[in-house]
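Milestone M4 deliverable, item 7.
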Amino acid sequence: RLCSRQPWGRGSPRLAELAPVRQVATLSKMRQTLLRTRLGLSLAASVVGAVQMAQPARSRSSSAVLPLASSMQSSQRATAVLVHGLDSSKETWSGVLADLAAAGYPAVAYDLRGHGESPLGDPDEFEPAALASDVLAAVRAAGIKRCVLVGHSMGGRVAMRAAAIEAESGGASVLRAVVVEDMDISPRTAPELSAEKRREVAAWGDGGEGAPGRRFASWGACREALLPWYDADEVRVDSWRNKRVRPHPDSSWWSDINPLARRLAWERVLASDDGASAWRELAARSGSGGLPFSVQLWHADVPGSVVKEGAGEVGGIADMSGQMPAARVRKFRGAAHSIHNSARDEFVSALCALVDEASLEGEAAAKHGT
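Output delivered:
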């Protein structure tokens, strides 16, 4: 029976008042409509349910960001931080970087200010402390927590100053070891430069009005600009093509070599007493309670080496060792000035061993809270 509790509408006849045939027909239509409605609702519910079941589970996003290991840093080992010398750039370490990466040792090489692709900045601020602070800031900006700092030649003087800065800070040092590659603290004399040449070399700054900097329209233009600063040595300058002087995608040529930075490095770093001063500071701290990192003096063999080996030679290896007995000295037999290139296998092996040693010592110190 159909319930007649509610009216169909104002003025509509009641179902009982309809003619019998009409009642039957109407009831039949009502049943069909009700059946279709119920069937439609049932099908709709089934389709919706199927769609909901077919939907993949939503991924939950996490607000926590986890530190990732990289070719620059690892939770297992300290990072080797490599600093080049005079008239050079990070590219001098390409072979060492490849070897370290193949062996699973994190490493990074930096261009000092005014070298490679790094800007020179204000020439008046080109000092050993600024160069060292640049390196330490770059290391920390990269998120590196511990490192073995290697400085080649002039970069060795920068490494000494960086070590002295870290030792003086009194805080947790990012350094675990410092390697000075074929450099001592003996006094050096910068080549003389006339007033006219000093004005000309200023054009090698960061660029700007009247100063093209280190970008040139062609290799030929760059070559001609470099030759006067390197005794017109065509063989030497030509050897830099596609290496220290490279084409850019915009067809210009960029020179990693910078005669102005070379001049400043000679006057402010190599010919200064900052290396001797930094070494004295390190030696004093080493003797009064130790340094939070080891110090290594790695030097080449004669005639390639630029360091003084003999006893009694002021600022030489023997003098440095006498001031800081804790410093470890190693001679690479048969190696030339750039040990990392002339005796690469031995150099990389020694560096890997030092990184492992420094990493283990760092872990032990952390466990004991020192």
